[in-house]
Amino acid sequence: MTPVTALAGESLVQSVDWLTIAPPTLTAVVALVVLVADLFVPEERKQVLGWTAIAGLVAALALLVPLRAGDRSTFCLSADTQVGACSYTADHFTLVIQLLVLGGALLTALLSLTETRERLPAGEYWFLLLSSAAGAALLPASRDLATLVVALEVASLPAFALVGLKRGDRMSGEAALKFFLSSVTATAVTLLGVSFVYAATGTLHLTELAQSLDDVPGQLQTLAEAGVALTLVGFAFKTAAVPFHFWVPDTYVGAPLPVAAYLSVVGKAVGFTGLILVTVVAFPSYADVWGPALAALAALTMTVGNVAALRQLSTRAWSAVRLLAWSSVAQAGYLLVPIAAAAYSSDDQIGATVAYALMYAVVNLGAFAVVALVARRHPENRLADYRGLYATSPAAALALAFFLLNLAGLPPGIIGLFAKVTVFSAAVDAGLGWLAVIMGVNVVIGLYYYLRWTALLFRTPEGAPDGAPSGAPEGKAVPHAVPAPITLAIVLTAVAGVVLSGYPQFALRFAANSLF
Length: 516
Hints:
The chain has 20 helices and 2 strands. A two-stranded antiparallel sheet has the order 1-2. The protein starts with a helix and ends with a helix. Helix content is 69%, strand content 2%. By secondary structure, the protein is an all-alpha fold. Helix 2 (22-37) packs antiparallel against helix 5 and helix 14 runs antiparallel to helix 16. The protein is globular and about 75 Å long.
């Protein structure tokens, strides 16, 4: 064999590091197993599929442990992974985001066990959830634009079906349609941007793009700039940044509650991860373009989200879910701040986004778990339905109060306070004083509606004398059954929140070590 033939053989046949790609691969394999098993498992034993999905997610999380060194890559252009560009890299950033998305999917699965037993088709649901989680776990490891777009769509396409899985429910179908149309638009814009960038540079690998965009010929400069701008717009849709947020409230209300929780955490993590990869890794030479744009989007997003959450009426149907939906839009604004700051200082600012995302994932999933619990007694899930929750479910009320205080950034939610201070510091260090001021104003606005909801939990229920819940004789609370999976989800998120609040340095150091 001649040297030329040998070189060609090496370029066509690449070795695969199966351990490196194991977490998303195992999740995808378990999804297929669940789909096939659904054909043979009798209706009365469909819960086995749910526990199989949970076991698969636990195993995928366990496979992150051997990768903790964060120095493995595969699908590379050269046999030397330190020199050649690779399509899949399991660095510290990848592992932290995979921990977040797989952990979020696991908690979503716990919340879904009751739903699949009572309302949703089990086989389809678990297959779609695991498929989306596999795409979400693949995305942070993607180091070329083609793999990035494919992972984004693998995470997004099953989510459309999950939103519309409540058969016969008009709101669910409408929510799925809005989500689908907005996401398809985002995908089309992203693909157009990627094609422009590829035409201008001749490469798709992120590290090579960073070098090629510095030397784009003059006649292709406008094409490259248009490609960068369109790619950013596409990911702005995925992160629900204003003005690309219009699908969020109706989608969260129409979707099954576990799916809304999943979209609020895992779906958001997918969008922000992609945004970080294309800005900080692929387009650093265009920081003067995407930096100001993301700073403006951050200010607009947090302001619109907080003002809309502030206007939610407590007696309106599904107002609790709508408030969490608008709150998630506001939180997206906070998450954008360190990414924008990275354009003005250094990549170290990205650690603040990762730290904030870890905090937000834990407490927001916990809040949705309590909302899912209350929805069993109050299907319309109004904020007014939470009045006096402490009288009937003291543990759930205390947990929800803790989660809301974390989102507000108030003690005893220390991790929420630390995360907000970290994001605020990132803006100040980057010289974005005006953005830090806008963030401070928005934090104050957020305090009002988070504290208003928290106060409702401890008020006397309507129609009951002081100290007695409605319908409870002699001041005794009315007991009601709580599904064990929902209880476990609340306990896990509450424990994680308490641990992080007691030792917030863990999340901050963990995030600081997650950089590329």
